[in-house]
Design goal:
heterodimer; A: alpha/beta; Rossmann fold; eight-stranded mixed beta sheet; 12 strands; globular; B: mainly alpha; 13 helices; 76% helix
Chain lengths: 314, 337
């Protein structure tokens, strides 16, 4: 239901052109949760904003196609796109403290949103209360202001809005990063339930442990490119890309004496990306070929794609 | 409950402000060369005994601390005393005569500055053109540094002398009479349904209000524009957009955020407004408290000057209190404890 093909996104800044997303292709099935994992600057948030068509004005989609239920998102007019946002594809943002307007009551913001998508006031209010109820926000809280809610409750409200109109895709961009640990689990449990209605969830996170715990499939991004895609089990048992292996080795394990390893070096400067493989400056196995030729994303086994010279097709 | 307590505490805090200003003015007046008696007589050649007699009569022979305390105690009792220069003239009646003129000018100036300042800031904030934004910022800076008498004279020259469409001074044309109710002629004429008088009063207040309003509008423009830009880049806007809310509605919500600092500034502006009113009134021969104060300073009329200063201090305190309460109406997060 979501097909992203050969996507290139660049930011034009005063200090140069940043290639934030380069040649990203992947698909998502109905009702699955795909985790997009990567560190900051890997292009995962840009990818989300591109699908939503909410990129800042200095960003340009240079190439590629995004098909959502067969609709070419990048070809829609601004007004057509606006109608899709929130109804067909919606978003849960990282910081619940800034996603709700502090000056307006929760219910008013919810009603405004639903009326924007064609509901009348009465049915909007009814649906809003139902949606809030379904995520555990009682009526009394619905009529209060955002600052009267806890961080977790605000994120519940954001999720309620994101799923109220039964979209095909919900993009959750670091939905739990700003919350404390106990609340994180509750919010992730709630996000798990979204899938049950057949909605696909794109979980954007820097936390590969969270991705492994929750997602069906995992896409690892680095320097604006896809490094590896596979289902969760494959990523855990047979990670093929050195970067994925590095991420997995950095997870602390309970009961293990081994100190988690970090990946040496820094993320690449995307105004001036490294020649060859974008990961080669930090790769322990890098050789001459990696420094000069960019590897292709190849399918090494069914559904398992890797972008690395060391991996040969089985 | 919280709000009521807050208001009371804030109101009590006005008292030290007034005391401080009164003390300052009291000292400065006594340190300045000249005194009300000599200024009123306009000569130094009077017999010493006669001078002493008048000084005694005005209470100026008493020790300073006694003058300081007596005036304050009388003022608190509601007795502003008598002018030291126009003898027998109660200051209270001067002030009731003059205050409405200043209040009227202030109200219209604030309206002009708010509408112009916030309006230009809002339009520039919505605009996608950086030229428009630069022009708005330029407007904000230029109007802010304008010198009121210079701007006033310029407007008098253009609209009064060249175009001959607006009067350059006074509150009403000769022959026009409005029965005072509030003492603010534009409002009084409206209340009484006297259209001719209303138009005349409006014509007279346009230039002074525009002069003062223009100078006060600059900061509103910059504040509105800067805050709209800041909020437009915030996550709230991305969140609104991600829900498919149309841009006009988002701009409206954003504008409410920008009003928070603007309202704060409105309270701060009031002190500037009174200062500006003094200059505007003298430029336009506007018979308000400003011209009154300047007159009285010329004559070293201690009691009258002190009364006006205390009233100004009280007004500034009152307005800043009102703005703080307005705050709570815009921003539900503000709670008074």
């Amino acid at each position: 239901m979501l097909i992203v093909e050969d996507l290139y996104v660049k930011y034009y800044t005063r200090r140069g052109t940043v290639s934030a997303v380069s040649g990203v292709s992947f698909t998502m099935q109905k009702g699955e949760m795909l985790a997009v994992v990567g560190e900051s600057g890997s292009g995962k948030s840009t990818l989300a904003l591109t699908i939503m068509r909410l990129l800042p004005r200095n960003a340009v989609v240079e190439r590629g196609r995004i098909l959502l239920d067969g609709i070419d998102v990048l070809k829609l007019s601004e007004d057509e796109m606006r109608r899709i946002r929130g109804s067909k594809v919606s978003m849960v943002l990282q910081d619940p403290f800034t996603t709700l307007d502090p000056l307006r009551r929760v219910i008013d913001q919810f009603i405004e949103f639903l009326m924007e998508h064609g509901l009348d006031r009465r049915s909007a209010e009814k649906l809003a209360l139902e949606a809030l109820e379904s995520v555990g926000i009682p009526k009394t809280l619905a009529y209060s202001y955002p600052h009267q809610l806890s961080g977790g409750q605000k994120q519940r409200v954001a999720i309620a809005m994101a799923i109220a109109l039964k979209p095909s895709l919900v993009i959750a961009d670091e939905p739990t990063t700003a919350l404390d640990v106990v609340v994180q689990k509750q919010i992730m449990d709630l996000i798990d339930t979204i899938k049950r209605g057949g909605t696909s969830v794109m979980l954007i996170t820097h936390d590969i442990a969270l991705a492994i715990e929750r997602a069906d499939r995992i896409m690892v991004m680095y320097g604006g490119e896809v490094m590896e895609i596979a289902d969760k089990g494959t990523i855990m048992s047979r990670p093929l890309h050195p970067y994925t292996q590095g991420l997995l080795a950095s997870i602390p394990r309970l009961g293990s004496d081994k100190i988690p390893e970090s990946i040496p070096g820094y993320p690449p400067d995307l105004r001036n990306p490294p020649k060859g493989c974008v990961f080669h400056p930090r790769c322990p196995y890098a050789d001459e070929r990696c420094r000069s030729i960019k590897p292709q994303l190849i399918e090494v086994e069914k559904g398992h794609w890797v972008k690395c010279h060391r991996v040969v097709k089985a | 409950m919280g709000l009521a307590r807050y208001v009371i505490v804030r109101a009590l805090l006005i008292i030290p402000t007034i005391l401080l200003l009164y003390t300052l003015v009291f000292i400065v007046l006594r340190v300045l060369p000249g005194n009300p008696v000599l200024a009123a007589l306009g000569t130094k050649n009077i017999p010493e005994e006669q001078l002493q007699a008048i000084m005694r009569e005005l209470g100026l022979d008493k020790p300073l601390y006694q003058q300081y305390i007596e005036y304050l105690v009388n003022f608190l009792r509601g007795d502003m005393g008598y002018s030291m220069v126009v003898r027998g003239r109660p200051i209270a009646s001067d002030i009731t005569d003059r205050f409405p003129a200043t209040l009227e000018l202030s109200i219209w100036a604030i309206i002009v500055s708010f509408v112009l300042g916030v309006g230009i800031g809002y339009v520039a904030g919505r605009s996608r053109s950086s030229i428009v934004k630069h022009l708005a910022r330029l407007y904000g800076s230029i109007t802010y540094v304008l010198f009121i008498p210079a701007l006033g004279l310029f407007l008098q020259l253009v609209f009064g002398l060249w175009l001959k469409v607006l009067p350059t001074g006074d509150r009403l044309s000769p022959g026009i009479y409005i029965k005072p109710i509030t003492g603010m002629y534009t409002f009084d004429a409206l209340i009484q349904g006297d259209l001719v008088a209303f138009i005349d009063a409006v014509k007279h207040i346009i230039l002074p209000a525009l002069t003062l309003g223009l100078v006060l509008s600059g900061p509103f423009t910059r504040l509105t524009l800067d805050n709209m830009e800041k909020v437009m880049e915030s996550k709230i806007v991305i969140a609104y957009r991600s829900r498919g809310i149309r841009e006009e509605a988002i701009t409206r919500h954003v504008f409410r955020h920008t009003l928070i600092p603007v309202v704060t500034y409105l309270g701060l502006q009031f002190a500037l407004l009174l200062g500006g009113a003094v200059l505007t009134e003298t430029t336009f021969n506007w018979p308000g408290l400003g011209t009154y104060l300047v007159d009285k300073i010329m004559y070293r009329d201690y009691t009258a000057i002190q009364a006006v200063i205390i009233i100004f201090a009280f007004l500034v305190g009152l307005i800043s209190l009102i703005t703080d309460v307005l705050y709570a109406l815009i921003d539900p997060r503000v709670r008074y404890q």
